[in-house]
Amino acid sequence: MRLLSLEGKLGAALGLAAGLAAALTAALTGWLGTTVSGALAALAILLPLLLVLARALARPVIELIRALSGSVVAFRDGDFSFSIAERRRDEMGDLVAAHNRLGQVLREQRRGLIERELMLDTLVQNSPTAMVLVEPGGHVVHANLAARALLNHGRAMNGERFDAIVAEAPPQLALALAEHDDRLFAAEIDGEEETFHLSQRDFKLQGRPHRMVMLRRMTRELSRQEVATWKKVIRVISHEINNSLAPIRSLSHSGRELARRGDGARLETVFGTIEDRARHLEAFIQGYARFARLPQPQPQPVEWGPLLEALVAQYGFGLAAPPPAEPGWFDRTQIEQVLINLLKNAHEAGGPPEGIELKVARSGRELRIDVRDRGPGMSETVLANALLPFYSTKRSGTGLGLSLAREIAEAHGGRVQLANRAGGGLEVSLLLPQPA
C-alpha cells in the first residue's frame, strides 16, 4: 500500500522549508529591525539546512537508480540473478517491484531454454543420423556422436576445418558434398559398401549463414526394403501366373469336352486362347528373367555423335554442354538402354519437355552422364527406395528402370546417383570408370 507518493514527499519537504524560512525571517526581522536584513540572515541560516535536507532526500533515490543501472547491465550480459531488496512505498518502489518481476520472468525463461537445449542436445547426440554444423569460415561448430564415428574416428570435430575432415573421407562423400543438394550415394566404409542419404541445409544462426550436413546410413533400411520388395515380387508373379493358369485350366477342360463331342470348329478358338495366354505368361517371365540374367558388359570405344543421335530419335532433350572430344568406354547397347529409360522417365515426370537436359562430362578417370528434368522431383522416401528392384510409384510401372540402371552401372564398375535439383526437378547421374 502506497503511503505517500514521491511527488508528495518532495512537496512536503518544500512546504516545510518554506514555513521555516517565513518564520525565521519574521523572527529575525523583529530582532534586526528591517525586512531585508531579516531575509538575508534567514537565508544564511536556512541554506545549509536546505542542502542537508536535499541530500538526505536524494541519497536513497540515487542509490536506487545506481542499483537499477547495475541490474540492467547484468541483464544485458545475460545474468538474471539480480533482484533489489527495496521496501519503498512510492513510485520508485513500484519500479523496483516491476524490475524484480521482470528478473523472475527472465530467470524462468532461461531455465526453460536450458532444459530444452539439454533435451535437444540429447536427441541430436544420440541420433543415428550423422549431423555436422559448419560456420561460414568452414569450421565445424557442432558434430554429434554419429558424425564423429563416421568422419573422424570418434574424435571431437569442433573447431576443425570441415574440408580437411572430408578430404580424409571416401572420395564419393566429397563428390556428393560438392553438389550442395540432397542425394543418395554409395561409399566404401571399412571395406564394405555402404549406401547413404545426404541432406544439406543452409540457414542463419545469430545473423550468420551456417550449413547443416546430415548423413543417414541407408544400407540396413535398404536391406529391409529389399526383403519387403522381394515379397511383393513373389506376390505379383504368383498373381500373374494364376491369372494365366486359371483360364488355361478352364479352356483345357472345355477343349477336352469339345474333342469328345467332335466339335472341331470351336476347338480352334479354345487352342488360340490358350496359346495367347501362354505367350503372355512367357513374355512376363522372360521380362523378369532378363533382369536376373544381365549379361556381362562388353566395353568398347563409343563415339558420342551417333549415340546422341540415336537417343534424341527416341526421346527429345537438350544438351547442357558439348560432349567430350574423346570417345566413351562402355557397353553401348547396355548404356544406351539405360539412357533411353532415364529419358523416358524424365518425359513422364510431368515437367516441361524443354526442361529435359543431358550432360556428358569427363573428370579424370570417371565419366559422368546426367539426365535432368524439371518435374516435381522425389520425396525422401521415394529417393531412398527408387533404386530397389520392382519399386515403383507408377500404377502400371514394373519398377525395373532405375534398378536396371544401377545393375548395369555396377557391372561396369560404376554407380548411379539420384538428387533433387534446386528449383525443382530430378537429376539422375550415371558414373562410369574410364581407362587412363
UniProtKB/TrEMBL annotation:
Q: Name one Pfam family in it.
A: HAMP
Catalytic reactions on record: ATP + protein L-histidine = ADP + protein N-phospho-L-histidine
Q: What EC number(s) does the entry state? A: 2.7.13.3
Keywords, alphabetical: Kinase, Membrane, Phosphoprotein, Transferase, Transmembrane, Transmembrane helix
Protein name, UniProt field: histidine kinase
Q: Where is the Histidine kinase domain?
A: 236-436
Principal place of residence = membrane
Subcellular location per UniProt equals: Membrane
How would you classify this enzyme at the top EC level? transferase
Q: Which PANTHER family match?
A: HISTIDINE KINASE (PTHR43065:SF51), SENSOR HISTIDINE KINASE (PTHR43065)
Give GO cellular component annotations, separated by semicolons. Answer: membrane
Q: Where is the HAMP domain?
A: 59-111
Q: Which chain positions lie within coiled-coil regions? A: none
Q: Name one GO molecular function term.
A: phosphorelay sensor kinase activity
Q: Which InterPro entries match?
A: HAMP_dom, HATPase_C_sf, HATPase_dom, His_kinase_dom, HisK_dim/P_sf, PAS, Sig_transdc_His_kin-like_C
Q: What are the transmembrane regions?
A: 36-58
